[in-house]
From TrEMBL:
<dbReference type="Pfam" id="PF00712">
    <property type="entry name" value="DNA_pol3_beta"/>
</dbReference>
<dbReference type="GO" id="GO:0003887">
    <property type="term" value="F:DNA-directed DNA polymerase activity"/>
</dbReference>
<dbReference type="GO" id="GO:0005737">
    <property type="term" value="C:cytoplasm"/>
</dbReference>
<protein>
    <recommendedName>
        <fullName>DNA polymerase III subunit beta</fullName>
    </recommendedName>
</protein>
<keyword id="KW-0963">Cytoplasm</keyword>
<dbReference type="InterPro" id="IPR022637">
    <property type="entry name" value="DNA_polIII_beta_cen"/>
</dbReference>
<keyword id="KW-0239">DNA-directed DNA polymerase</keyword>
<dbReference type="GO" id="GO:0008408">
    <property type="term" value="F:3'-5' exonuclease activity"/>
</dbReference>
<keyword id="KW-0238">DNA-binding</keyword>
<dbReference type="Pfam" id="PF02767">
    <property type="entry name" value="DNA_pol3_beta_2"/>
</dbReference>
<dbReference type="GO" id="GO:0003677">
    <property type="term" value="F:DNA binding"/>
</dbReference>
<keyword id="KW-0548">Nucleotidyltransferase</keyword>
<keyword id="KW-0235">DNA replication</keyword>
<feature type="domain" description="DNA polymerase III beta sliding clamp N-terminal">
    <location>
        <begin position="7"/>
        <end position="93"/>
    </location>
</feature>
<comment type="similarity">
    <text>Belongs to the beta sliding clamp family.</text>
</comment>
<dbReference type="GO" id="GO:0006271">
    <property type="term" value="P:DNA strand elongation involved in DNA replication"/>
</dbReference>
<dbReference type="GO" id="GO:0009360">
    <property type="term" value="C:DNA polymerase III complex"/>
</dbReference>
Length: 159
């Protein structure tokens, strides 16, 4: 789901797990995103990510027309995607503020990469098919095991 407020919010979800990233409209004095009309749209992640990978320019324009037709432009490239009404899409539960933390994207990718290799691929022990995330004392602790391998990584988390 794409949502524009005072920036650009991108949410990915498969109904079991969701992740949200936010790009603010301004970075200091620099305007990063120009918003003509705020709004929301749901796009199929597979098509949207393939389009984004192929965009020729660093500047991207996203326009939503009638019936949720979404036009993505970059340089001379133009892509049309059929979207869905964001109001009909299930909303993510809001995390209570005292449980929220911030971590740089690259660091999060590294934490996942350095622990996910130890996750079990066998569905016979579903408790071992994920990475355990725990935040305590200002640290994010990630642990994974398949009962043969153990991965443990921790990093600073800002509240």
């Amino acid at each position: 789901m794409l949502r524009l407020m005072k920036g650009f919010s991108l949410t990915g979800s498969d109904s079991d797990i969701s992740i949200e990233s936010f790009i603010p409209q301004r970075d200091g004095d620099l305007e990063v995103i120009t918003i003509d009309r705020p709004g929301s749209i749901v796009l199929q992640a597979r098509f949207f990510s393939e389009i984004v990978k192929k965009l020729p320019m660093s500047t991207v324009e996203i326009e939503v027309e009638q019936n949720h037709l979404t036009i993505i432009r970059s340089g001379s490239a133009e892509f049309n995607l059929n979207g869905l009404d964001a109001e009909e899409y299930p909303h993510l539960p809001q995390i209570e503020e005292h449980h929220a933390f911030q971590i740089p994207t690259d660091l999060l990718k590294n934490l996942i990469r350095q622990t996910v290799f130890a996750v079990s691929t066998s569905e016979t022990r579903p408790i071992l098919t994920g990475v355990n995330w725990k935040v305590e004392k200002g640290e994010l602790i990630c642990t994974a095991t398949d009962s043969h391998r153990l991965a443990f990584k921790k990093s600073e988390a800002r509240y």
